[in-house]
Design brief:
Helix content is about 30%, strand content about 25%. By secondary structure, the protein is of the alpha/beta class. The chain has one domain (about 5-15, about 40-95, about 120-305): Ribokinase (UDP-N-acetylmuramoyl-L-alanine:D-glutamate ligase, 3-Layer(aba) Sandwich), CATH 3.40.1190.20. Helix 1 crosses helix 7 (about 265-275), helix 5 (about 190-200) packs across helix 6 (about 210-225) and helix 7 (about 265-275) runs antiparallel to helix 8 (about 280-295).
Length: about 300
């Protein structure tokens, strides 16, 4: 067991601007909102903060604009003890913005719709990350997502693979993934929609009840493409895990009041990655990550809601 694993996150910073409303507007319609909040986010930064709050030593690599949002997002990570010395500042591109629409219906149930303007995230270059060719061997796990250029992700995956460092890829937002990269992934963690895009398998479920045959079929497609371990998040139905020796579905916590689902998937990925890097077995890691994700949805804002170990 490793008490404080070294985790490298190469990914995005996004400032979330969240408007709450009782219903989403139709096309061409204006509706009144019932709340507004700003919070630091971005899949990369969210996963980094969740890992740090659960005890990992985390290094964050990414890029922000030379603006107030960029400073706030770096500060948010640094306050959690994350090493931000490799975070870059682009003086010619703004920090990324996430427009989050949060619908809160009369029963208190929430849904969100998010549009991200990637800004400085998409200006990261392979040349700027050349230091990883020597330094990546110092880490126990590398976390990646799709809010930075694909060629950067592929470069980091290649570096990690050559040095025997496990990689967790969260393929969000959904995008095609090269067959040459798949066998170099230790873990891939799509949600059910991203899994369908990657595999062509639609996972049917009704609330907390999921079609396990669909889940197994989707996992098998990804295993056949070379990924070592597949973790699919299933919303209210929990999460599924599979590799050549294991398959299980871990149900989600029930009776959780979802205040804001933003960041829940990032929380899950950050928690799972930290736990397996500590030496915790897969099933226990998924179960605890489910708890952590459930705590996340019970509060407003992505990073403000990410749970601490205490």
């Amino acid at each position: 067991m490793k008490d404080k694993p070294e985790i490298l996150v190469v990914g995005s910073f996004v400032k979330d601007l969240t408007v709450s409303t009782n219903r989403f507007p139709e096309v061409g319609e204006t509706v009144l909102g019932c709340g507004f909040q700003t919070a630091s986010g971005g899949k990369g930064a969210n996963q980094a903060i969740q890992a740090a709050r659960l005890g990992a030593h985390v290094t964050m690599v990414g890029k922000v604009g030379d603006d107030i949002y960029g400073k706030e997002m770096i500060d948010s990570c640094a306050e959690c003890g994350i090493d931000c010395s490799r975070v870059m500042i682009n003086k010619n591109a703004p920090s990324a913005i996430g427009n989050v629409q949060l619908q809160i219906d009369k029963d208190g149930k929430t849904q969100n719709r998010i549009i991200v303007v990637p800004g400085a995230n998409m200006t990261i270059t392979i040349e700027e990350l050349s230091f990883l060719e020597k330094e990546i061997k110092n880490y126990d796990m590398v976390l990646l997502q799709f809010e930075i250029p694909m060629e950067v992700n592929e470069f980091v995956i290649e570096c990690a693979y050559r040095n025997g460092v496990p990689v967790m890829l969260n393929p969000a937002p959904s995008a095609p993934l090269s067959d040459s990269i798949m066998p170099k992934l230790t873990y891939i963690s799509p949600n059910e929609h991203e899994a369908a895009d990657l595999t062509g398998v639609t996972i049917r479920h009704d609330g907390a009840h999921v079609n396990s045959d669909d889940v197994k079929a989707a996992i098998n497609v990804l295993l056949d493409r070379g990924v070592k371990n597949v973790l699919i998040t299933l919303g209210t139905a929990g999460a599924a895990f599979g590799n050549e020796n294991e398959f299980f579905i871990c149900p989600s916590l029930q009776n959780i009041v979802a205040v804001d689902p933003t960041g829940a998937g990032d929380s899950f990925v950050g928690a799972f990655s930290t736990l397996v890097s500590m030496g915790v077995d897969h099933e226990k890691s998924v179960r605890i990550a489910n708890y952590v994700g459930a705590l996340t949805v019970s509060k407003m804002g992505a990073q403000p809601s990410l749970p601490w170990l205490e």
